[in-house]
Design brief:
The protein is built from 15 helices and twelve strands. It is α/β, with parallel strands linked by helices. It has two domains: about 180 residues, Rossmann fold; about 120 residues, CBS-domain (Roll), CATH 3.10.580. The strands form three sheets. The protein has a five-stranded parallel beta sheet with strand order 2-1-3-4-5, sandwiched between helices. The protein has a four-stranded mixed beta sheet with strand order 6-7-8-9.
Length: about 325
């Protein structure tokens, strides 16, 4: 067997082992109501979810705390070593502690366990061993599957950390669904980077007020052309006497209708009636899809028939929405 084939074979064995572990965890979840009990504690706490763990469990704990915090459950990670040197003061009686240890005997967790018991702080234990120190101490036990590691030595945390990560994701997603956490809620916690760009709404990017190219239905094309040139968005909206949008003229319309007397024509003769419009509250990423599907570059933003903004495809690109 070539080195390449050996690598592929090893990779597949690792995947198979970790998938088997997750399937076992899936089957065991329905054996008791501990998941719901843990979720009740986390959802109803007046404080925060304090996640702790040592070594690889600690690394996964960092991620679990971050995922909880970003999906509507206030949470942060406390290192058990630092907890023994003052960081126990970060815990309050209103908090819930989620302590992670695959074997359940991480001695570094002992001070946190004792502190929780002393001050009546609810403790959720995440371990494969219910009879361990951590397993027995917990008010609720979230059992990890005891299926060994994908590591051929049976030593390096592999399958166990995958299961821990997935169980943390289960908690976060269940809480998200329980709380009715929305895309808008998610956006407020992710204002930067690509996620922040994707979750921007049309109202965040649209041109408003005097930046909108608008003209009355009785205007001439000369007036329309001057408005289009001044606003530099490649279009002009036509409004009726009540200020409602009834039509739109774009650069493309001008090219298609070009004639010697076009400037003397009324805008109503040239405009596209009832043009496609959008609303302020849809995601910019959704609008970009609509623009691409309809092969257009801009849309007016309407609220109760009244134009409240205009957005160009370049506004989406410039904001990182793509």
């Amino acid at each position: 067997m070539t080195s390449e084939n050996q690598d592929i074979s090893s990779a597949k064995r690792t995947i198979d082992k970790e998938v088997e572990t997750l399937r076992i965890m899936e089957d065991e979840l329905g054996n008791n109501d501990n998941l719901s009990k843990a979720l009740d504690l986390m959802q109803n706490t007046k404080g925060r979810v304090i996640v702790t763990g040592m070594g690889k469990s600690g690394h996964i704990g960092h991620k679990i705390a971050a995922t909880l915090a970003s999906t509507g459950t206030p949470a942060f990670f406390v290192h058990p070593g630092e907890a023994s040197h003052g960081d126990l003061g970060m815990l309050t009686n209103d908090d819930v502690v989620l302590a992670i240890s695959n074997g359940g005997e991480s001695k570094e967790l002992s001070d946190i366990i004792v502190y929780c018991k002393r001050y009546g702080i609810p403790l959720i234990s995440m371990t494969k061993n219910p009879d361990s120190s951590l397993g027995r101490a917990g008010d609720v036990l979230l059992k990890l599957p005891d299926h060994g590691e994908a590591c051929p030595l049976g030593l390096a945390p592999t399958s166990s950390t995958t299961a821990t990560l997935v169980l943390g994701d289960i908690l976060a997603v269940c809480l998200l669904e329980r709380k009715g956490f929305s895309k808008l809620d998610y956006k407020q916690r992710h204002p930067g980077g690509k996620l922040g760009a994707i979750l921007q709404k049309v109202s965040d990017l649209m041109h408003t007020g005097k930046e909108m190219p608008l003209i009355n239905k009785d205007a001439t094309m000369k007036e329309a052309l001057l408005e289009m040139t001044a606003k530099m968005l490649g279009s002009v909206g036509i409004v009726d006497t009540d200020g409602k949008l009834i039509g739109m003229i774009t650069d493309g319309d001008l090219r298609r209708c070009m004639s010697d007397n076009i400037l003397s024509k009324n805008v109503a003769e040239i405009m596209t009636k009832n043009p496609k419009t959008t609303t302020p509250d849809i995601l910019a990423s959704e609008l970009l899809k609509i623009l691409n599907e309809n092969k257009i570059t801009q849309m007016f933003v309407i609220d109760n028939g009244m134009p409240v903004g205009i957005i160009h495809i370049h506004d989406c690109f410039n904001a990182g929405v793509a």
